[in-house]
């Protein structure tokens, strides 16, 4: 078997969504699907989702899983739309999502009814777990540090790294989110990604097009080890941690962090409708001026 990979790029959030499938059996998974959200007017739409579904239907694919690399802080997940369309599909994420839920339950001051045992997801994956999606065999590689629940997915000769590892000319994911840790990210990349064969293809979760170049999403482990501008194969842990912590201290928060994480720790479920039929996002105010009341 030789997998095929179809890539979808969401320009608004620089997010890459992948459909990985076996062209013979038509078995498929979706990795990191986007639910479109415009904060101006707080408008949710399904353009990105529909592109993926249309591709699947045109190619007679059977979607078995939505695989989340982590609880994203920059876009809402379209996972529940896939579950509505394909009732047998499962939404899967690292079992360490429980840690993320516990942290953000406090950030949002969520009620006791919000449980932090991960039951919102259909499947919680253990580190290094190997599982099947029809004829596809997938291995969950732990790459935490950007968040505690980050997983990379190894499928044949391709690894999908989410926000852990980007293109060589951009580097790695930031580690300043609650419960993030640069040293943990370093260990996960070095031990679980850079230990893969050099020819392993790397597919990133975002591309921010440094220096205005065209969007790219594929490299190799060998290329990353040789030329990743933040973490080469011979970069020491102390060097990386120093660089990452100094850089992260200067970064602004993602524009959609509060909207995204509120939805994504619930496995892509939007907030429940209230008595007027509308749904509401909960966003904390970070007040920095003494005179604001």
Low-confidence segments, ≥5 residues, pLDDT <50?
A: none
**How are the strands ordered across the major sheet?**
1-2-3-6-8-9
Strand-residue proportion: 15-25%
Number of helices: 7
Q: What is the CATH level 1 assignment? A: Alpha Beta
Number of domains: 1
Number-wise, the strands total 15
Q: Report the structural category.
A: alpha/beta
- CATH superfamily annotation: Ribonuclease Z/Hydroxyacylglutathione hydrolase-like
What is the general shape?
Answer: globular
Topology summary:
Blueprint: E1 4-10, E2 15-21, E3 27-31, E4 34-38, E5 43-45, H1 47-58, E6 62-67, E7 76-77, H2 79-85, E8 90-94, H3 97-108, E9 123-125, E10 130-133, E11 136-142, E12 151-155, E13 158-160, H4 182-193, E14 201-203, E15 218-220, H5 221-227, H6 237-248, H7 257-264
Parallel strand pairs: 3-6, 6-8, 8-9, 13-14
Antiparallel strand pairs: 1-2, 2-3, 4-5, 4-7, 10-11, 11-12, 12-13, 14-15
Helix pairs in contact: 4-6
Task: Give a summary of the structure in a few sentences.
The chain has 293 residues and is an alpha/beta fold. The protein is 24% helix and 23% strand.
Structure description:
- With 293 residues, the protein is an alpha/beta fold.
- The protein has a single domain, classed as Ribonuclease Z/Hydroxyacylglutathione hydrolase-like (Metallo-beta-lactamase, Chain A, 4-Layer Sandwich).
- The protein is built from seven helices and 15 strands.
- It has a six-stranded mixed beta sheet. It has a six-stranded mixed beta sheet with strand order 10-11-12-13-14-15. A three-stranded antiparallel beta sheet has the order 5-4-7.
- The longest helix has 12 residues, at 47-58.
